[in-house]
Write a structure and sequence with these properties.
Cytochrome Bc1 Complex, Chain A, domain 1, 2 domains, 13 strands, alpha+beta, about 425 residues
Length: about 425
């Protein structure tokens, strides 16, 4: 008989198996990363185009170019594209980042021929129709106006502007006039410069058969397409942070204030980066963190507060964020600094460190258990120029970091003087 009073045995996780992709060269030289995992008859195809915010000449140029792909291609209108994808149960996602644009297709295997045909058309032969462009711009303009009223968006934008400078690609945000200044020719120019077979990488995941690979090769690899030139190169721009450390943005009638604190931190290439993630998780990266235990559970100042490292090309940012009643903001700032001091002065207990390690390792296991999440993992290493053993090193860093190292890391990298405080809300 099973004794339900006995606690099941706990087994430590020694390794995480993240299958390596098979790298295939299409006939025209495009690299195809094949991740054949899972039994479901579903495919995800990711097309990565080099060139994002860092490569645009005008604000919004990269995002709108990628967004307009679905609005019409040679032989198909936006309505026909949407109807065909919907008929075959497919889903199309278009997104942009600092140095890449992404076109992602989810499709059933049995209809991959039909959905791939649509995808090939919108990537290789978009038409950028004027009427649809006007609608897309107007919709995004309205969303911008809505976001301008959100205190969390105010603090996020202002912090990046303060850290990087308003002329830096990571600190340069769109303003209302930018939605009127962008035009179709800007999009066509960005497309000509970046959307070609010499600047594309493809990831395919799910139940990937040889037939699926052959179809991708036929659609994207049988010949060169676009105005082929050298791949878009990434040019790093030095940040120009402001001198101001305490910034207040007044928002009348705000029900809550938003607080965002941040400063430059370790980048992904730094030898201490992987172990420092344990420190940041302990500080504010999960529900049982120091910040949550103190500011939410003990003081009751907020429903939630978190800290994390935002990794950008060649640099990272430590960011702490929360929303709370206006009157509590000064006390929250004080407590954030108090928790940083505690980690710099007092060694964490074995019990607390082991809890954080277990959480982080369990989170890694959950994050990489399906074919699409595994694809996300390898796309992350690709766009970040990380080595193929990055996840093995991450696991080892979590397992091996000691409480003595946590103390030293906090003393080296938790600098209150480097943090900028941004508050948006009613006057305190």
């Amino acid at each position: 008989m099973l004794n339900r009073k006995d606690i099941p045995p706990v087994h430590p996780i020694d390794s995480i198996d993240i299958p390596n992709p098979e790298i295939i060269k299409l006939r025209n030289g495009i690299s195809l990363y094949k991740i054949n995992v899972g039994d479901e008859e579903v495919i995800r195809l990711d097309i990565l185009i080099g060139g994002g915010q860092h490569s645009q000449d005008k604000t919004l140029q990269s995002m709108f170019t990628n967004r307009m792909l679905r609005e019409g291609c040679l032989g198909r209108s936006s309505q026909q594209i949407a109807e065909k994808l919907d008929f075959y149960g497919a889903w199309l996602d278009l997104s942009s980042s600092v140095n890449y644009n992404f076109v992602t297709l989810y499709s059933l295997n049995k209809y991959f021929d039909q959905t791939l045909d649509v995808l090939s058309g919108i990537v290789k032969q978009p038409t950028f129709p004027e009427n649809e462009f006007a609608t897309v711009v107007d919709n995004n303009r309205q969303q911008y106006l809505v976001n301008c009223e959100r205190v969390d968006m105010m603090t996020r934008k202002r912090l990046n502007e303060s850290l990087f400078g308003k002329s830096h690609p990571l600190g340069k945000y769109a303003y209302l006039d930018d939605y009127s200044n962008i035009n179709i020719e800007d999009l066509k120019e960005f497309y000509r410069k970046n959307y070609h077979s010499g600047n594309v990488t493809i990831f395919v995941s799910g139940k990937v058969t040889d037939d699926i690979v052959a179809k991708i090769d036929k659609a994207f690899g049988d010949e060169q397409w676009g105005e082929v030139k050298a791949a878009t190169s990434f040019i790093d721009v030095e940040p120009m942070p402001c001198e101001e450390k305490h910034i207040f943005i007044r928002k009348e009638n705000a029900l809550q204030s938003s607080l965002r604190m941040g400063g430059f931190f370790l980048d992904r290439e730094h030898p201490d980066f992987l172990k420092s993630r344990v420190l940041v998780t302990l500080f504010g990266g999960y529900f049982g963190s120091r910040l949550m235990s103190n500011i939410r559970e003990d003081k009751g100042y907020t429903y939630g507060i978190g800290a994390g490292v935002i990794s950008y090309p060649h640099r990272g940012v430590l960011a702490i964020s929360t929303e709370a009643a206006n009157a509590f903001i000064p006390s929250i700032i004080t407590e954030v600094y108090s928790e940083m001091d505690r980690l710099c002065n007092d060694m964490v207990s074995d019990k607390e460190l082991n809890m954080v390690k277990s959480y982080m390792i369990g989170d890694m296991c959950r994050a990489y258990e399906g074919p699409f999440s595994i694809s996300d993992a390898w796309i992350y290493t690709f766009i970040s120029s990380l080595s193929s053993d990055f996840y093995h090193k991450s696991l080892e860093a979590i397992k091996r970091v000691t409480k003595e190292e946590i103390l030293v890391l906090a003393q080296k990298y938790f600098s209150k003087q480097n943090l900028i405080e941004v508050v948006a809300g009613e006057k305190m």
